[in-house]
Design goal:
about 210 residues, six-stranded mixed sheet, 6 helices
């Protein structure tokens, strides 16, 4: 998004409000884009109970919400707070997908880039994937499980200039959840512009992190 639009901090608890970003510009009537990405306060260290209450109210009550992306710290793995959130999402039938964040700490711990990643580092990341997937699948909770594959991303070290590991995959998942990939397929078949397809309500997505 760029620092001028979205400020970030290394300190836990800095995000204290739900921040909404309309994606895709405006339509002819001046309405915001079809996708609204919601950056939410973390639920782990430095979080507050009242934040969680308001966040769950939003997730449960927002009719336009199409998917919640749960960011799991790849170094720490699935924590008790992560399990509690995933349980709540399943119990309330909220579509969600798991994202492993900060994978640069595993693949490039010394910020040396990804040109020559030792196979041992890749094996560690693969083990993290399998462990978290098994834990998520084994949760004895009624309700729909996490959708799609567990994705991995990093915004710390690029593998090419301007290319951040896994970010394009995450972008694609966001577009797919909002129906843009299907709209693109239909527009190519009909030779029309995606912008011609007007939605009565913009899709809403949320990003939750520890």
């Amino acid at each position: 998004m760029g620092k001028s639009l979205c400020h970030t901090s290394k300190n836990p608890g800095r995000t204290k409000t739900m921040n909404f970003f309309a994606v895709g510009g405006q339509d002819e009537q001046g309405n915001p884009g079809r996708i609204t990405v919601v950056d939410m306060p973390g639920y782990g260290h430095k979080s507050r109970a009242e934040w969680g209450e308001e966040i769950m109210k939003y997730l449960v009550g927002r009719r336009q919400l199409v998917r919640t992306f749960v960011l799991i710290d790849s170094m720490q793995g699935l924590k008790q707070s992560d399990e509690a959130l995933l349980q709540s999402l399943r119990e309330n039938a909220i579509s969600h997908q798991v994202i492993l964040s900060k994978v640069d700490r595993i693949l490039s711990p010394k910020s040396q880039g990804y040109i020559k990643v030792p196979q041992s580092y890749v094996a560690v990341l693969q083990s993290k994937f399998e462990s978290i997937r098994n834990q998520v699948d084994a949760m004895d909770v009624a309700g729909p499980k996490a959708v799609g594959e567990i994705l991995a991303c990093s915004c710390k070290t690029s593998h090419k200039e301007g290319k951040w590991l896994g970010v394009n995959n995450l972008r694609w998942s966001i577009l797919a959840a909002a129906g843009f990939t299907e709209a693109r397929r239909r527009s190519e078949m009909l030779n029309t512009d995606i912008g011609d397809e007007k939605a009565s309500q913009p899709a809403s997505l949320s990003l939750s992190s520890p």
